[in-house]
Design goal:
Elements (H helix, E strand, L loop, with lengths): L1 H20 L1 E8 L5 H12 L23 H6 L6 E7 L2 E7 L7 H8 L4 E7 L6 H13 L3 E6 L8 H12 L2 E4 L1 E4 L7 E4 L4 E4 L7 E4 L8 H6 L2 H17 L5 H5 L3 E6 L8 H11 L6 E3 L2 E3 L7 E9 L8 E9 L2 E2 L2 E5 L4 E5 L2 E5 L2 E4 L2 E2 L4 E5 L9 E3 L17 E7 L5 H13 L4 E5 L5 E5 L3 H14 L3 E6 L3 E5 L12 E5 L4 E5 L2 H10 L5 E2 L3
Parallel strand pairs: 1-3, 1-4, 4-5, 5-11, 6-11
Antiparallel strand pairs: 2-3, 7-8, 8-9, 9-10, 12-13, 14-15, 14-23, 15-22, 16-21, 17-18, 17-23, 19-20, 19-22, 24-26, 24-27, 25-26, 25-29, 28-30, 28-31, 29-30
Helix pairs in contact: 11-12
Length: 532
């Protein structure tokens, strides 16, 4: 009897490990306009998941990027919220999380990075490492997430490849290993040399990609000289010889720890270099990884189910006014209709209608495995950071980061008859983590706080389109909020606001850093907290 049970356990574990090894879950990050959404589209197109790739530049047409599903994203041509695309590619189950590049939406990106096992970082060949790339890289570096770099727009004039590699190493502090090397740039761009496969991938504007395999890295063949400008061929031979002799070698362990980044050159808009990039990426990128919890390390191959809610999105389908909680499965197997325990509430929930995503589109799913992203219909049961477990012996994967707002505004509905819809919209968008909401102590006015000013426009647009509420927004000059442990008999300057968050915790919204320091000097016994 014992041997039969052990045999079943080993068989289940083996089946689970097989599913885990077939999965890759990663995010794509970049500074705005580096080509992040374009690369996502081309990967989807090459996989057969879509018939034609949209472009975020074609705003006047009816063709938009698949991952940009929100109305304002289509109008502006930018990604505002993270989206999930799940599809198969060369036998792998892929979960791509396309993240906003604009810094005003970085909070959504930061939380999304908590749900991935690796990251593809896109760099514009003409601009190198930009400001937002540095911020996002730091989050990845702090978590030790493996990073794969795609240097984009090689068919345009840009910086010297050596300079770009030096930029990555000096600015980001990570070792780089060029997996391929460009042959020319801009108008002289002729392709790339794949150092691993010893192949030259030839580029032309008609997108008729050809591949030439070198025997023993022999750059002197007559055929090759007919395909590539002799001067460029000689320069390529010298460069590859130098990289092989004096450059760093590829270190798989360093890649896994996020200390070395494989670098690829290509052009997302023309799809050049993407098939070879995906071939190497699928080989090198890690399968779903385990996570630390307050009960120790949880391996993905543990049979007991667990998952973490990293994002909540309301009104993905405005016709149904639905709300979806995005859950990353961390261990075990998700099964439709299963019971799970929410560690925060210590209550049982039935996971009745699991959804899998393709941007705004989604369909029912019966089973899912570690690395997969599952959507749960949410009638208000979940919060960002909730850990769900398959048994009553719950544990927590920890809270996801919340960032203090830097911009504030008073908001109200222009039409008093829309108050109910106004409060519902404000509550739901705050639960998504897009805004933070406060009530003033004196008149109970509504103040919202955001990390970036563009979030005000998104908030106004969504209240109008999704809840039918036209807003009056009064921007405030205030720049920071601090929570306090006790507000009894506390007097503050008239230029600051005493307020309460949605859980009733007291805080002060300060006009500027000077006002904050002035308050601290006058009230040395009052403790101020940057995070609740």
């Amino acid at each position: 009897m014992i041997s039969i049970q052990k045999g079943n356990y080993n068989m289940k574990r083996s089946q689970l490990e097989t599913e885990i090894n077939k999965r890759k879950t990663f995010a794509i990050i970049s500074h705005p306009d580096a080509g992040k959404t374009t690369l996502t589209e081309k990967i989807l197109f090459l996989s057969g998941a879509i018939r034609s790739a949209g472009t975020v530049k074609s705003r006047k047409s009816e063709k938009f990027a698949t991952s940009d599903w929100m109305e304002m994203e289509k109008q502006r041509g930018i990604s505002i919220t993270s989206s999930v695309m799940q599809f198969t590619y060369d036998g792998y189950n892929i979960n791509i999380l396309d993240t906003p590049g604009h810094q005003d939406f970085s909070e959504d990106t930061y939380r999304t990075l908590m749900a991935v096992d690796s990251v593809v970082m896109i760099i514009d060949a003409a601009k190198g490492v930009e400001a937002q790339t540095k911020k996002l890289f730091k989050v990845c570096s702090d978590r030790g997430i493996p990073i794969f770099t795609f240097i984009n727009k090689m068919d345009r004039q840009g910086r010297d490849p050596y300079e770009l590699l030096e930029d990555i190493e000096e600015v980001l502090g990570i070792q780089s290993f060029p997996m391929n090397w460009p042959i020319g740039m801009g108008t002289t761009f002729q392709g790339v040399y794949d150092r691993n496969g010893h192949k030259i991938h030839l580029y032309n504007e008609q997108k008729e990609h050809q591949t030439y395999t070198l025997e023993n890295e022999d750059f002197t063949s007559h055929t090759l000289k007919e395909l590539i400008d002799p001067d460029q061929l000689f320069e390529l031979q010298e460069t590859i010889s130098l990289l092989n002799e004096a450059g760093d070698s590829m270190d798989l362990e360093a890649i896994k720890q996020g200390k070395q980044t494989p670098v690829f050159f290509g052009s997302a808009i023309s799809s050049f270099g993407i098939p070879a990039f995906m071939e190497h990426f699928l080989e090198l990128a890690p399968e779903p990884q385990g996570r630390e919890s307050n009960n120790g390390y949880i391996a993905p191959s543990e049979l007991d189910f667990s998952g973490i809610v990293f994002k909540i999105q309301a009104n993905m389908n405005p016709a149904h006014r639905d709300r979806i909680a995005f859950m990353r499965i961390c261990s075990g197997t998700f099964k439709k209709g299963m019971d799970a325990w929410n560690d925060r509430t210590q209550k049982s929930v039935k996971l009745a209608q699991g959804q899998q995503f393709f941007a705004a589109s989604r369909g029912n799913i019966d089973e899912a495995y570690p690395g997969d992203i599952v959507g749960l219909y949410d009638p208000g049961l979940y919060q960002i950071g909730d850990t769900l477990c398959g048994t009553k012996d719950t544990f927590s994967y920890g809270k996801l980061p919340q960032f203090p707002p830097e911009h504030f505004a008073k908001v109200r509905a222009k039409n008093a008859m829309k108050q109910k819809h106004f409060y519902k919209g404000v509550a739901q968008l705050s639960e998504e983590g897009a805004i933070q909401v406060y009530k003033t102590a004196a008149m109970e006015e509504t103040i919202i706080g955001v990390v970036g000013v563009l979030q005000f426009e998104v908030f106004e647009s969504r209240l109008k389109n999704e809840y039918g509420v036209v807003l009056e927004i009064q921007p405030l000059p205030h720049t920071c909020a601090r929570w306090i442990s006790n507000d009894q008999s506390l007097k503050i300057e008239s230029t600051n606001y005493k307020a309460y968050d949605q859980q009733g915790n007291p805080l002060i919204i300060f006009e500027n850093d000077f006002a904050l320091r002035w308050f601290q000097n006058k009230n040395p016994d009052i403790e101020l907290y940057e995070k609740r």
